């Protein structure tokens, strides 16, 4: 029902979605684009409802619906005293990834960087929902200060960065090829990884079936500091693009991700 309201009645950002899909997949026919578009809106409304469910779902039920691969290896890295920067994208159900602390040792900080909402009441509500599974939400403008503080206190952490945000035009300093665009990207996560000596992982999320997801921890590189500038960012975007090409309907196409990009 919500799909029909959003897609056919409200027509929420349909022009943006169609433009993004058409430019990102020039090899696909109009019919194929339309099919992906409709599948995306089905997935989109599911994510809206699943995000709302975070307010009441039990921890046991969450662990049943959102599972993680290679979490034992991640825990080994953390137990060895290494903190982790976790790269994510607006792909599949990124909100449910806040349940990662349920799978970590109790002494490990599970944090996520978020964009503070202008409405204080709504911001407080979203924080309460996102922190129900044990995660700590950190205002993106306070990221460096937060990482500095916990590093100085020698606290072990895994911090999630949804790193596929589009930078402001004046901050667009590094471009790479992503989904048939020459795209400006944020590189702050890479700088934090190298400066604080963090391990770098990518979280590859798959939808097993409706309401069920599986996420796999994939190490981006075993020695990020040894990489030339922006190489870690390149690797992240290559992995994210691979996921999107495999299941394009799971990406968040409603955002104007390519507003400062050049079509290839």
Q: What do you see in this structure?
A:
- The protein has 264 residues and is an alpha/beta fold.
- The protein has one domain (59-247).
- It contains 9 helices and 10 strands.
- The protein has helices at 2-10, 14-24, 30-53, 59-65, 71-79, 120-130, 143-152, 188-196, 231-246; strands spanning 66-69, 84-88, 109-114, 136-139, 157-162, 175-178, 181-184, 199-209, 212-221, 262-263.
- Strands 1-9-8-2-5-3-4 form a 7-stranded mixed beta sheet. Strands 6-7-10 form a 3-stranded antiparallel beta sheet.
- A hairpin with a 2-residue loop joins β8 (199-209) and β9.
- α1 (2-10) packs across α3 and α2 crosses α3.
- The radius of gyration is 18 Å and the shape is globular.
Provide a short characterization of the protein structure.
The protein has 264 residues and is of the alpha/beta class.
| Total of DSSP H or I helical runs spanning 4+ residues | 9
Proportion of β residues? 15-25%
Unreliable residue runs: none
Structural class of the secondary structure composition?
alpha/beta
The shape, in one word, is: globular
How many independent structural domains?
Answer: 1
Query: What about the largest sheet?
Result: 7 strands, mixed
Helix content: 40-55%
Q: Between the first and last Cα atoms, what is the distance in angstroms? A: 38 Å
Overall radius of gyration: 18 Å
Instruction: State mean pLDDT (0 to 100 scale).
Output: 95
Number of strands: 10
Order of helices and strands: HHHHEHEEHEHEEEHEEHE
Going across the biggest sheet, name each strand in turn.
Answer: 1-9-8-2-5-3-4
């Amino acid at each position: 029902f919500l799909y029909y309201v959003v897609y056919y009645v409200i027509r929420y950002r349909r022009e943006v979605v169609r433009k993004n899909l058409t430019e990102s997949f020039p090899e696909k026919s109009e019919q194929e684009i339309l099919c992906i578009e409709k599948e995306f809106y089905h997935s989109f409304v599911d994510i809206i409802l699943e995000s709302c469910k975070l307010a009441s779902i039990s921890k046991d039920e969450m662990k049943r619906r959102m599972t993680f691969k290679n979490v034992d290896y991640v825990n080994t890295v953390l137990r060895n005293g290494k903190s982790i920067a976790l790269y994510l994208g607006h792909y599949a159900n990124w909100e449910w990834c806040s349940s990662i602390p349920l799978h970590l040792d109790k002494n490990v900080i599970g944090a996520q960087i978020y964009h503070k909402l202008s409405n204080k009441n709504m911001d407080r509500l979203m924080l309460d929902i996102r922190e129900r599974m044990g995660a700590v939400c950190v205002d993106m403008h306070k990221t460096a200060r937060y990482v500095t503080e916990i590093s100085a206190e020698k606290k072990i952490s895994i911090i999630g960065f949804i790193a596929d945000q589009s930078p402001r035009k004046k901050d667009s300093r590094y471009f790479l090829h992503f989904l048939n665009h020459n795209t400006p990207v944020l590189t702050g996560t890479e700088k934090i990884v190298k400066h604080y000596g963090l391990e770098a992982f990518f979280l590859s999320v798959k939808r097993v079936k409706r309401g069920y997801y599986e996420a796999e921890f994939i190490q981006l590189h075993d020695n990020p500091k040894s990489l030339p500038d922006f190489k870690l960012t390149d690797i992240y975007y290559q992995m994210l693009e691979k996921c999107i090409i495999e299941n394009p309907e799971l990406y968040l196409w409603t955002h104007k991700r390519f507003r400062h990009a050049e079509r290839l």
